[in-house]
């Protein structure tokens, strides 16, 4: 196994989009083209399936030194109301561009820390959203909660608004790890937040754990997983720690590189975690996720309806996803658009009456084909180009690039397609990279991605 890790542990994208953000072609993108594609997408899909909303709520009271998310650290809660007013103004800018009243199929409140906001302010936000929208059948509303500040009042208010899914950031229970990542978070807090969500009626509680954090050991990881087991979350996200200290603002400086486990140790942590989760009755879903049989994520994996977008895996898909808030990314299927990355710049553009989009990408025919294969691989671990106009030279190139993985028993080709074997699952990102035409054609000169393992 160690040889395979050495061979395949290279920098690579996590494929929450294709093309990945560093390979967007900003030159052929404009705000006007973005507006045209999302209006087209809205007209094609709102009636039949509805739209999704991602709302980014960036504030956190303290910096966790492992965190790669877009966040703003502050203890000043006076930032809440102006920020929510801006998000609602942005929503109204979109509403004015839609040809009819939107039907919302999915809402995800992400962060930062959505539960940094008071229940009253979150209610104000959601009321403002629903003022101009209806709810689609089979809707799913979810949020990310911080176990240290999610209160019963938050949970009750969000439940009353239709939220049924919550994911809590847990990361690791080992105090030495918690101190190194500046996130001391007792088990009791997670227990209380989990139990309260269940009592109120949330049907899916998920815990985020990370392997590969500083000072993590097999023993500590086993203890973390045993504590997790005692709370029986419906889903577990088991993320590989993405060490990306070169990205401005991540703040990954609270420990030394030597404190991190080696790639081999990191792999062992994953293997042990996976073994324990499976023993506990969880099924591995795509990459990073485990779910119990009753959970909709497991059901969508079985029905081959699992989808992946900027929020990670999702059990339902809409053609149009509108991202509101600082740094949010929207996806009209034909194009991507990202909002300004600082709160100040975001607020400035919205208050001048403009969408805050500052970059994006219009997908070409070839992008759409490659995106489909990458999504198939990430979600179903297989793909097929049966009856498709996939260019022969692309297929030949992919076959040559994957020769080693075939010899190593990680994947196999079938007629007009390929399958990632169970042994190849940890290397699925490497397989996707052979379909990543944009990256192959524009090899990056500097490090932009975390390691694949
Ligand atoms: C926005 S946070 C969750 C909500 C809340 N802020 C909290 O921390 O509890 C989303 C999740 O992303 C994951 N995450 C953040 N930075 C990461 C990194 N560098 N590598 C892997 N996972 C990371 C963590 O598991 C975290 O719980
Ligand atoms: S892990 Fe969560 S609480 Fe910590 S800095 Fe990142 S977003 Fe904020």
The radius of gyration over CA amounts to 21 Å
Helix segment tally: 16
Low-confidence stretches are none
Q: What is the SS-derived class?
A: alpha/beta
Ligands present:
S-adenosylmethionine, iron/sulfur cluster
Q: How many beta-strand runs?
A: 19
What portion of residues belong to β-strands? 15-25%
Describe this structure in words.
It is built from 16 helices and 19 strands. The chain is an alpha/beta fold. The strands form 5 sheets. The chain has a 9-stranded mixed beta sheet, sandwiched between helices. The mean pLDDT is 92. Bound molecules: S-adenosylmethionine and iron/sulfur cluster (SF4). Residues 60, 66-69, 110-111, 113, 144, 146, 169, 171, 208, 210, 239, 241-242 line the site of S-adenosylmethionine.
